[in-house]
Specification:
The chain is of the alpha/beta class. It contains 7 helices and 10 strands. Helix 2 crosses helix 3, helix 5 crosses helix 6 and helix 6 packs parallel to helix 7. The relative contact order is 0.18.
Amino acid sequence: MDKKYLNKIIKGDCIEILKKLPENSIDLIFADPPYNLQLKGELYRPNQTKVSAVNDEWDKFSSFDEYDKFTYDWLKECQRVLKKDGSIWVIGSYHNIFRVGKIMQDLGFWVLNDIIWIKTNPMPNFKGTRFNNAQETLILASKSQKSKVTFHYKSMKAFNDDKQMRSDWYIPICLGNERIRINGEKAHSTQKPEELLYRIILSTSDVGDIVLDPFMGSGTTGAIAKKLRRKYIGFEKEDFYKKVAEDRIKKVVPIDEEFLNYKIEKPKPKVTF
């Protein structure tokens, strides 16, 4: 991999930049694409204060066909650059994840799990017209059915009180000091919690691997990749988010490598009778 991409956030359209990366060069991809929420109008709480919803231009598409083409194009390039035994994670809501999953299967990705991120502190449904939407879905897939992906089963079990880690993850949304704010306002409307990326990167990559995020946003993927001594590559279209992410990542101190060597995964030596 060309050093001009490693441990950097590249400004530009993810599809065009992906085309410049070599085939079979990325170990792990985490993608948090636009959800195409199709929001109509503004949302207010019962006390008439305005809800800070996702109404950014990057989340707006004119039709499902336009969104599907966009999804197909970036996933196709991700498949090209992913190593044969690499993994890809894509997160989404009910607005888009079923369309994303269908396109992934059509392209030949092999779905390994769907992880449900259960938000322990979700935003209420203020209108009282639906169930409280308290989850998002992550699709974990390999490049093909024949891929032999990295998966640190024993380590994830150890992190879970020695119980097999399940596919329902109870993690709060970003609050307090973890939520990045500029002049008191959220820097990014869809910032993901660090705990989510810890689990993803620890479970499906090794120290020194290259982690790609085509939609870097506020930089959670890059920050956790650096902390866990992985290399990262990020793409971001907007200067504001690029600076937010870069400033955040600069402050990260990597964990001592001796704590990241997955000793528990190594088989015990055989003892002769």
